[in-house]
Design brief:
mainly beta; Neuraminidase; SMP-30/Gluconolactonase/LRE-like region domain-containing protein; zinc; metal-binding; SMP-30
């Protein structure tokens, strides 16, 4: 078995806080956001060209997801708002087409998101940077939401510290979820028909691995065998867990401290793309912090990511 390889994506630029990767299989585009830099980034994996844009008056942009069946249209989380934008992938300013909703809570912002197989959007919130440090573990002001055009905004869980990674098993019967305030990966029973979650339990207790110097769990994704890959803030690693045995199978090390999110991409879903941060939240960061990375020779493949549907089935 070949050892995994880690490379900085040379075409990428330094992000203050890169996050929320979305790989679009039909275009071979990779999207992500520089959350604190207020930018949307796109990498064309065919040409290796990168494009970036901003949204007028929005300083925080958390995620971007393409909308199924609508060319150049995306659902975006910006600050406390969900919106639809139009972006041709070339211009440096996106056009806001519609504000879908605004989270009715002060002092928070939208963070990590993911879309299920039916096209529903799931995302969570956290304390905003203006309202205090996310290290303040007493402030559980976040929530976890589902959004569709038919239902609108539905709160699924409250008293969240820092809502982060979301993933499903390949059959969409289980949802995996990270609240970064807790050293746990949670598992919910998932009903694909309704989009409801239930029977929360701790799947993996990450405090067991505290002697490795792990800090906070952040983004998660799964591969074709339902293994879970979780990025760890503060220690420059991605941990691969077997969801059945709950045992760690692999540690992937990067030459940066703050590893924020990871998703499989490429036509065969065999490359793990990784965002990082150069924020000073863990102290001064050195090059190449903030750049996009790719990990290959992992001897596994990811699965398709799903676009948001205006009318889910």
């Amino acid at each position: 078995m070949s050892a995994y390889k880690v490379e900085q994506v040379r075409e990428s630029v330094m992000n203050i806080s890169g996050k929320n990767i979305f790989y679009c299989h039909d275009t071979n585009f990779l999207f992500w956001c520089d959350v604190l830099g207020g930018q949307i980034c796109k990498l064309d994996l065919c040409t290796n060209r990168i494009s970036m844009c901003r949204i007028k008056d929005e300083r925080i942009i958390s995620f971007i997801i393409p909308i199924e069946g609508f060319k150049d249209q995306f659902i975006v989380g910006a600050g406390k708002k969900l919106m639809i934008i139009n972006w041709d992938g070339v211009t440096t300013m996106a056009h806001v087409m519609k504000i879908l909703c605004e989270i009715p809570v002060n002092g928070i912002r939208i963070n990590q998101c993911k879309v299920d197989k039916q096209g529903r959007l799931f995302f969570g919130t956290m304390i905003s940077e203006e309202s205090g440090s996310f290290f303040n573990l007493q402030k559980r002001v976040g929530s976890f939401y589902r959004f569709t055009m038919d239902e609108g905004l539905v709160e699924l869980k409250d008293r969240i510290g820092l809502s982060n990674g979301i993933a499903w098993n390949k059959n969409f019967t289980k949802m995996f979820y990270v609240d970064s305030y807790d050293l746990n990966i949670y598992e919910f029973d998932y009903d694909l028909t309704s989009g409801n979650i239930g029977n929360s339990k701790v799947l993996i207790d990450l405090s067991v691995y505290s002697h490795h110097g792990k800090k906070f769990a952040a983004g998660i994704t799964t591969d074709k065998d339902d293994n879970i890959f979780v990025t760890m803030l503060g220690c420059g690693q991605i941990l691969k867990f077997n969801a059945k045995s709950r045992k760690i199978e692999q540690e992937i090390k990067l030459n940066v401290q703050i590893v924020t999110s990871c998703e499989f991409g490429g036509k065969n879903f065999d490359t793990l793309y990784v965002t990082t941060s150069c924020s000073d939240v863990f102290g001064p960061q050195n090059f190449p912090a903030g750049f996009l990375f790719k990990v290959y020779n992992l001897n596994t493949n990811g699965t398709e990511m799903y676009k948001f549907k205006m009318n889910y089935e």
